[in-house]
Design brief:
The protein is an alpha+beta fold. The chain folds into 3 domains: about 130 residues, Rossmann fold (3-Layer(aba) Sandwich), CATH 3.40.50.20; about 120 residues, ATP-grasp fold, B domain (D-amino Acid Aminotransferase, Chain A, domain 1), CATH 3.30.470; about 70 residues, Dna Ligase, domain 1, CATH 3.30.1490. About 35% of the residues lie in helices and about 25% in strands. The strands form 5 sheets. The chain has a 4-stranded mixed beta sheet with strand order 3-2-1-7. A 4-stranded antiparallel beta sheet has the order 8-11-9-10. Strand 5 and strand 6 form a beta hairpin. The longest helix is centred in the C-terminal third of the chain and has 20 residues. The radius of gyration is 22 Å and the shape is globular. The relative contact order is 0.13.
Length: about 400
């Protein structure tokens, strides 16, 4: 149920782009998964807000057209435009500079920013300061979710299983690399996975089968990040992911078992535990659905009890990080022991994972409309909190 007056249309600002390695993915998420269904619903006035790769903010209806980006004409077009100014005094307003400043008030911000300078909580801080409702996780949850180490530590504090791990920052490691190599070899069992703490899973990750390759893998991770994570591999591995939406009462979509390529189905023991050797089985059956990472099995092909356990772990992780609006929880399962481990959390799933929600019976229009309503609901509850406190402190000066 909408939290606003249905006689007037809300103005939804869709924010995308930014100074991120996932800039182009953000554009597709914004235009295909958010702008289009919002407009088709005819319930909202949709304002595109594009952050260019140099950090400048722009807003113009022509930015809703993917052809402007796919044609390669975006830089030439931006050179002829004036960036907008942000007015965050008691709300979020876009100001188009000119002889007569044009101002657009944003009722709800809907971010499609993947990666750094957006998904990590930076932009959410602007919205919080402005006092404008926004879709998705808040500042703290976004920042924690974007740090794989913090995510594991929060999960541990809430008695949610994680794989054994060692972490360190770049300065500490470079000061005494032998000490960390020794610690890792003493604490963890091979094979290991060495990862940058803050980047997506496709960048800087190395599978290490034996100690002689460990130092080089760490060097690769620290080339991309200031903090590295080394974790123990899961035996008999099944990898699953669970999109979730909601505030106090989160709702799971379907547990999804992603595969590596659209034409092949690689089980994850082959992918991770055998050095990425090619092989595996063709995708079979109606469970194979094409998702953002290729073909996936939706719902995941797991025994009923194990499926329920993984779903419960995903929801527990979502709550423990204080996620709101939406997120996706990635988990690792040991198929022999039945143990389910929290791996990481994505506070803004690519294209909102619409393919999964569609399988769960939620249309693209219902998904984005529900997310807007959740943003309004969360903002209304926060607005009822007292954030100032009257004191006599200044009178003593």
């Amino acid at each position: 149920m909408n939290q606003h007056d249905k006689s007037t249309k809300l103005t939804v600002g869709v924010v995308f782009g930014s100074r991120s390695t996932e800039h182009d993915v953000s554009i597709i998420t914004a235009l295909a998964a958010i702008v289009t269904p919002l407009e088709v619903s005819q319930k909202y006035t949709v304002v595109p807000i594009y952050i260019a790769k140099d950090g400048q903010w722009y807003s113009d209806d022509r930015l809703k057209d993917v052809a402007l980006f796919s044609s390669g004409q975006i830089d030439a077009w931006l050179a002829k435009q004036s960036p907008v100014l942000l007015d965050i005094n008691n709300g979020l307003k876009l100001v188009q500079p000119g002889l007569r400043n044009k101002t657009i008030a944003i009722d709800v911000a809907f971010t499609a920013l993947h990666g750094t300078h957006g998904e990590d909580g930076e932009v959410m801080g602007i919205f919080e300061m402005a006092g404008v409702p926004f879709v998705g996780c808040g500042v703290a949850a976004s920042a924690i979710a974007m740090d794989k180490v913090f995510t594991k530590q929060v999960a541990q504090a809430n008695d949610i299983p994680v794989t054994k791990f060692v972490y360190f920052d770049k300065h500490a490691y470079e000061t005494d690399p032998d000490e960390y190599i020794t610690r890792i070899n003493r604490k963890l069992r091979y094979p290991l996975f060495v990862k940058p703490a803050h980047l997506g899973s496709s960048i800087g990750i190395t599978r290490v089968a034996e100690p002689k390759d460990l130092a080089n893998a760490i060097e690769v991770a620290l080339h991309y990040d200031t903090k590295a994570l080394v974790e123990e591999g899961v035996q008999n591995l099944i990898e699953v992911t669970l999109p979730i939406m909601g505030n106090e009462t989160p709702r799971p979509a379907l547990l999804e078992q992603p595969s590596l390529k659209s034409e092949d189905f690689f089980d994850f023991e082959t992918k991770y535990m055998s050095g990425g050797k090619k092989g595996g089985k063709k995708m079979a059956g109606a469970g194979g659905v094409k998702g953002s990472q290729g073909y996936s099995t939706i719902p995941a092909d797991l025994p009923k009890e194990l499926y329920a356990k993984a779903e419960a772990v995903g929801l527990a992780v979502y709550r423990s990080l204080d996620c709101a609006g939406m997120a996706r929880v990635d988990m690792l399962i040991d198929s022999k022991t039945g143990e389910v481990y929290c791996n990481e959390v994505n506070p803004l799933p690519g294209s909102l994972y619409t393919h999964n929600w569609n399988q769960a019976g939620v249309s693209n229009i219902e998904l984005v409309s529900t997310l807007v309503d959740l943003a309004l609901e969360r903002h209304a509850k926060q607005a009822r909190l007292e954030t100032t406190f009257a004191t006599n402190f200044l009178k003593q000066f």
